Amino acid sequence: MAIQISSELLDGCVLAILEDEDYYGYTLTQRVQQAVTVSESTMYPVLRRLKKNGLLTTYDEPFQGRNRRYYQITQEGRTHLATVRDEWQEFREGIESMLGDEKSDE
Q1: In a domain, 77, yes or no
Q2: Residue 51 maps to a domain
Q3: What's the CA gap between 73 and 9, in Å, rounded?
Q4: Which is deepest, 27, 68, 71, 98, by most CB within 10 Å?
Q5: CA-CA distance, 8 to 69, in Å (whole number)?
Q6: Neighbouring residues of 17: CB distance < 8 A, sequence distance ≥ 6
Q7: What is the mean pLDDT of residues 5-9?
Q8: Sign of CA dihedral 10, 13, 19, 91
Q9: pTM of the entire structure?
Q10: Does residue 36 contact residue 5 with C-beta atoms inside 8 Å?
Q11: Residue numbers of the domain that contains 61
Q12: What is the model's pLDDT at position 103?
């Protein structure tokens, strides 16, 4: 069984990765894939949506005769990430209260 990640959580994962360092698309996708199952074809629409919503910005850097598009979190993105983290904490605590450690016999 594969548990699907919501778009809001996927957005949060992308923003969290970009919080400390800018990444170009391919490397960013690989970083996300280390944590959750997501295809490369899923990632680029996510990145476009985050940019459209003002949560990311992009810039190009030359690399071996080509340009790499780097993604950078904006201040709005940082604010949104803080909200996602708060909501994730509440969600996680609720799920853990139901599915967490096996209940001891009382």
Answers
A1: yes
A2: yes
A3: 16
A4: 71
A5: 23
A6: 23, 28, 31, 32
A7: 89
A8: positive
A9: 0.84
A10: yes
A11: 7-90
A12: 57
